[in-house]
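haha ok so turns out i had the wrong file open the whole time. this is the CORRECT one, sorry everyone. sequence first:
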Amino acid sequence: SDTVYSVAWSPDGQRIASGSNDKTVQIWNAADGSHIYTYQGHSDTVYSVAWSPDGQRIASASADKTVQVWNAADGSHAFTYRVHPDQVYAVAWSPDGKRIASGGRDETVQVWDVTNGVNLYSYRGHSDAVNSLAWSSDGTRIASGSHDRTVRIWAPVIGGSVYTYQGHSSVVNALAWSFDGKRIASASNDKTVQVWNSTDGSNAYTYHGHTNIVEAVAWSPDEQQIASGSWDGTVQVWQAP
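then structure:
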């Protein structure tokens, strides 16, 4: 009944989850658009939703300062994670489904065990809100995009920062790893999408096709193209470098 901030497909492609300013997460049938159920565990805006790799659970991040994990089959609550002292903007599952990363206004990235909600790592390095997160396909690294104009790469195994990418001149809104883990695409308020090498942060290409804030970015499955969505009213598809 209000602004929708996040949508996510289930791994099997049969359902879609959506998070909204109306404080709910809605689950839909992807084939015909019929409504399946509503999850009402949050008390404020839901900014991000993510399915577990096995499709059994959903994590949702909210302005109510929590990340909640619940069963995708019926919406029953599994647990609530409360480490963040402020609004939580992003949530992402590790590829093996054993960990969840979350980031928010408190400028941190938190990593925790999905079986019991125990905090594993707290990453501090950003100087402003963290609003986008993405795991590498092998689960060894996490990328976090921030209002501080940087993307940081973290290594959950060692619990530390690997390097900082400083190519953008404004807020970083979205991140996407290539499937081979060698490149990262990042979208920004500076109207660009930048592609860079995930091993050392060197810039591979900067795309200047948009005329306004770029809010979303995604790789094609064959890694040959990148799609980006912008406040300029367009979705643009371009050849990956």
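The first strand starts at residue 4 and ends at 9.
again sry for the mixup
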